[in-house]
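Practice problem 4.
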């Protein structure tokens, strides 16, 4: 069966071929008389064809908008990352779903193709935690740790004179 001349649809488990070859009933020979039922069917067919044509136009328009939206989304992410916008062509071919996270992931995986290296951002530390860390550093800088205490004790035990002891504790004579 010629697939261009018919549409195959599945109806209740059966494959049904429906013709999509439309003819214009206005071109029929005027010598034949049609009754009101035939005119009604002809009007329905015309309306159906007009609806199908409008649906096809709207679907094409929608696919164009979707394509533009995907391109704009990728362009924004690339601009924020400082990447050449020509990379969008590669990204759009590889990704089905386009959002900031998927584009960023793609750039991390494939950025070396065009010289992009992802930046390693330092983790955010709030000021309260930073102040607490500074206080801990101040306290521990001058603290005597067990290894320092043992070292000091050993050096004092090995001292031969008072001069050696003064030198160990860091006082002049």
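Answer key:
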């Amino acid at each position: 069966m010629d697939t261009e001349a018919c549409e195959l649809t599945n109806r209740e488990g059966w494959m049904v071929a429906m013709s999509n070859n439309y003819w214009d009933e206005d071109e029929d020979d005027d010598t034949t008389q049609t009754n009101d039922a035939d005119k009604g069917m002809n009007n329905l067919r015309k309306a159906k064809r007009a609806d199908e044509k409008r649906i096809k136009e709207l679907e094409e328009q929608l696919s164009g908008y979707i394509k533009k939206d995907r391109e704009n989304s990728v362009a924004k992410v690339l601009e924020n990352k400082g990447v050449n916008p020509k990379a969008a062509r590669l990204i759009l071919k590889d990704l089905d779903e386009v959002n900031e996270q998927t584009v960023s992931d793609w750039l991390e995986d494939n950025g070396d193709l065009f010289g992009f290296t992802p930046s390693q951002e330092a983790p955010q530390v709030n000021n309260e935690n930073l102040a607490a860390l500074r206080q801990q550093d101040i306290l521990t800088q001058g603290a005597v740790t067990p290894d320092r205490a043992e070292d000091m004790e050993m050096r004092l035990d090995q001292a031969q004179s008072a001069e050696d002891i003064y030198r160990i504790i860091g006082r002049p004579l």
